[in-house]
Amino acid sequence: MALPASLTLAQFSDKLRVTKASLHCPSPMQVSRTGGGEVLRARLGASLWQGEATLAFQSQRSTGGIRALIDMLLDENTTFGISPADYYGPASDLGGAILGASAVTLSAVAANNRDLTLAGLPAGYVMSPDDLLSFPYAGKVAFHRVLVGGTASSGGTVTLDVWPRVRPGWSAGAVVQLRNPYFRAVMTERDPGASERIFHSGMSFSFIQTLR
Questions:
Q1: Is residue 153 part of a domain?
Q2: Structural domain for 30, as ranges
Q3: Is 178 part of any domain?
Q4: What SS3 class is residue 196?
Q5: Which residues pair with 32 in a beta bridge?
Q6: Which of 69, 93, 106, 159 lies 20 to 30 Å (CA to CA) from residue 133?
């Protein structure tokens, strides 16, 4: 049976043995300057997550289909879910010992589209800068990094400053992923690596978030 054009975390990302990775969310800008020395910047598009992943060497006969999957994901109609390989949940809750099975939800987003409020956290739970989170919106997946954290109130709410800005279409009550946040991406380039005797090494690929 053929794989779907949109792979889940289990079908691709969770199978990867990543040895080195990068992830960032820049704002595409056009920069110019005036004769008086003023620097002018104009946004050219959406702020999208992008990065690269380098994979560990494996036996030629047991790459788990990764080589074929990477080739397939270069097709123009394919996407995949990806979760940062070096992220293990909020800094204050490694292993999920505190968070447990709590259902964390999106409560509100401020007019600046950067301050968002979470509900359903244990009282006193700390969200720290660089923590990550994701939630569904308008048929897509939002993925954000915490800029300014906070401590959950006795009622289990906390307001955070996040990047990138929250896009239109969010809804109160959406379930928020804190321990395994992810986003949907498309593959832009790949290095297929090379084989030497029984091992295959040097596989890597680059990717960028998609909002479709």
A1: yes
A2: 6-84+183-209
A3: no
A4: strand
A5: 40
A6: 69
